[in-house]
Design goal:
mainly alpha, Serine Threonine Protein Phosphatase 5, Tetratricopeptide repeat, 5 helices, ARM-type_fold, DUF2019 domain-containing protein, PI3K_accessory_sf
Length: 115
């Protein structure tokens, strides 16, 4: 588990690791994708522990789709309607991996499987 020294470091790690995860997934490098997922998860856990999960909301408007996808995937667990809208938007597009991921998160959320 990666450790963070401050909020900005955690947020920047989410941005960088979301982008690296997307590239690795598209090329079939699942080892790298899994490593970056772990960093994203650690950074989100850090923000939660600091009571700063709201910092993720700023990234819902980020100019990279992979960042918006990961952030929305975590925020929807709190029934965040903006996160749901972002996931709906991504799922409606035909973007390999991204659209599928968004649809699966929305499906699980609607069934109450996310916690």
């Amino acid at each position: 588990m990666k450790t963070f020294n401050n909020l900005d470091e955690a947020v920047n790690s989410i941005i960088e690791s979301s982008q690296k995860h997307a590239k690795a997934t598209q090329t079939g490098d699942y080892k790298t994708a899994n490593l970056n997922y772990a960093v994203i998860n650690s950074a989100v856990t850090y923000l939660k522990e600091k009571g700063e999960i709201e910092k993720l909301k700023e990234l819902l408007a980020y100019n990279d789709l992979s960042v918006k996808l990961w952030v929305a995937s975590y925020l929807i667990k709190q029934n965040d309607q903006k996160a749901a809208a972002v996931l709906e938007e991504i799922s409606a597009q035909s973007i390999r991996h991204h659209s599928f991921h968004a649809r699966m998160v929305l499906q699980d959320w609607r069934k109450g499987k996310l916690f």
